[in-house]
Design goal:
Layout (H helix, E strand, L loop, with lengths): L9 E5 L4 H12 L3 E6 L2 H11 L3 E5 L8 H12 L5 E4 L14 H29 L2 E6 L12 H21 L4 E8 L5 H7 L3 H10 L8 H12 L10 E4 L8
Parallel strand pairs: 1-2, 1-4, 2-3, 4-5, 5-6, 6-7
Helix pairs in contact: 1-8, 3-4, 4-5
């Protein structure tokens, strides 16, 4: 048996139509999993699912509609024909703004998408996982949860909150056969990164100078880390945060 195989697993991936989410989906499909992509833009989801092939399906949904989380999990189960054994809380929005200019509505909007919606979906999948004593929940955190980055106070707060959620969920559910982990990507080529660095060449150079590997990452770098954390190879790994950052978090 290949310990890195995800054969027989079904993953619900939020924000799965583009960027890191799509990279995670590609790697999970290649590792043998079925995937259900969730996002708000149906055209992107349809294109992504078509590219992934028969192992992929999609559901257009707004995860910030918190009361709909149990129904979304039910629909995902029906779409895939299998219970959700992996949840990837990856969906998010970016806000680049000085802290003093970030108003409470903007701050709350970021937290609602990243933190509150992820909690709602996690609690929606947990009953099925607990019943079967099997499941993995994975959060896409960020370097902004590990060290200071300017102009992203709401995003940093949200991604830092993931670390507490991971540890608490891991402590609560470990004896029930559920593992909970996070990936903290560094600067990975994606639409969100390009938006964050738009018109700021000096910032791009600073990032590369502090990254020992001297380059931006690829979505598959995150995807294969996600496969590992959700596979039998990591069966004794829970409550951890894995940096996938080319060394940025230890660079200077």
């Amino acid at each position: 048996m290949n310990p890195f195989s995800l054969a027989g697993e079904t993953a619900l991936i939020t924000g799965g139509g583009t960027g890191l989410g799509f990279g995670i989906a590609q790697c999970m499909v290649e590792a043998g999993a079925q995937v259900v992509l969730v996002g708000r833009r149906e055209a992107e989801l349809k294109r992504a699912a078509s590219e992934l092939g028969k192992a992929a399906s999609y559901l257009a949904a707004d995860i910030t509609r918190l009361d709909d989380a149990p129904d979304l999990v039910r629909r995902a189960t029906e779409a895939s024909g299998s219970f959700i054994s992996i949840l990837v809380n990856n969906a998010g929005i970016h806000l680049k703004k000085p802290a003093a200019e970030t108003n409470p509505h903007e701050f709350n909007n970021v937290l609602q998408t990243h933190v509150v919606a992820a909690h709602a979906l996690s609690t929606a999948v947990l009953p099925g996982m607990i019943q079967r004593k099997h499941g993995c929940i994975l959060f896409t955190s960020s370097m902004s949860a590990l060290f200071a980055l300017p102009l992203v106070i709401a995003y940093s707060a949200a991604k830092s909150a993931y670390l507490g959620m991971v540890r608490t969920l891991a402590a609560e559910t470990g004896e029930q056969g559920i593992r909970v982990n996070a990936i903290a990507p560094g600067w990975i080529e994606s639409p969100m990164l390009r938006k964050a660095l738009a018109g700021d060449e000096k910032r791009s150079q600073r990032i590369l100078q502090r990254t020992p590997m001297g380059r931006f990452g690829d979505p598959h770098d995150v995807g294969w880390a996600a496969v590992y954390l959700c596979s039998p190879a990591a069966k004794f790994v829970t409550g951890t945060v894995l940096a996938v950052d080319g060394g940025a978090s230890i660079g200077f």
